Amino acid sequence: MPQYYIWTIGCQMNKAESERLGSYLEQLGYQPTPTAEEADLVVLNSCVVRQSAENRVINKLNALKSLKRLHPGLTLAVTGCLVDSEVDQLKNNFPQVDYFFEPGDCPQWLGKAELAQVLPQHPSPSTFVPIMQGCNNFCAYCIVPYRRGRERSRPVEEITGEVKELVHRGVKEVTLLGQNVDSYGHDLPNQPDLADLLTELNTIDGLARIRFLTNHPKDMSTKLIETIAYLDKVCEQISLPA
């Protein structure tokens, strides 16, 4: 039975996507292994938001060159924010890598699937739930819109159904994830917002706590603040960029 190893660095979204990617691989018959040396497939989920993180990714890729020489049959793939539209340049820089795929995607050579819709096989009592991707705020210091793209929200019904299933699997707390969760829903029909989503999730039996991040003060609304104060399951905690 083939084995996989996922190395993850960066934000909570990367951690959530690695967890779901692992579940997807297990559905395909792979088994996890704690070291890259034992794996048939190694995936690096990268981050380049800070230079220190990018340096660690590059160092890890260089370290895996020798492993590829020792095990020519090893498949090495890279995802996360290192991967942009200039894949040919990445292939030239890192010829030891077999596949590059964009953050939030499933590896296409293994089949087609929506990674956001792949539920964790063995979720912890506190679990991340991605609700949107991308950001429309092109802040001068941030690379996220160039790597994650424009904002794309998941429908309320889809998220609600997922959280209900996670609760059925033993989850007690969910953290809703997005690069800018405060602008959730503006791209959906009828434009539901984060307050509407929180109100819907608050009705789910068995769910004890709801958190969300990351926020942008530009998109914080009075309605959202009042909803946080009113709903009993929503933690009174707001994560803002420094």
UniProtKB/TrEMBL annotation:
Transmembrane segments: none annotated. Residues 2-121 form the MTTase N-terminal domain. CDD domains: Radical_SAM. Residues 121-242 form the Radical SAM core domain. Keywords: 4Fe-4S, Iron, Iron-sulfur, Metal-binding, S-adenosyl-L-methionine. Coiled coil: none annotated. PROSITE patterns: MTTASE_N, MTTASE_RADICAL, RADICAL_SAM. InterPro entries: Methylthiotransferase_CS, Methylthiotransferase_N, Methylthiotransferase_N_sf, rSAM, rSAM_horseshoe, rSAM_sf. One of its GO terms (molecular function) is tRNA-2-methylthio-N(6)-dimethylallyladenosine(37) synthase activity. Signal peptide: none annotated. The keyword Nucleotide-binding does not apply. GO terms for cellular component: cytosol. The keyword Metal-binding applies. Its cofactor is [4Fe-4S] cluster. This is Uncharacterized protein. It comes from marine sediment metagenome.
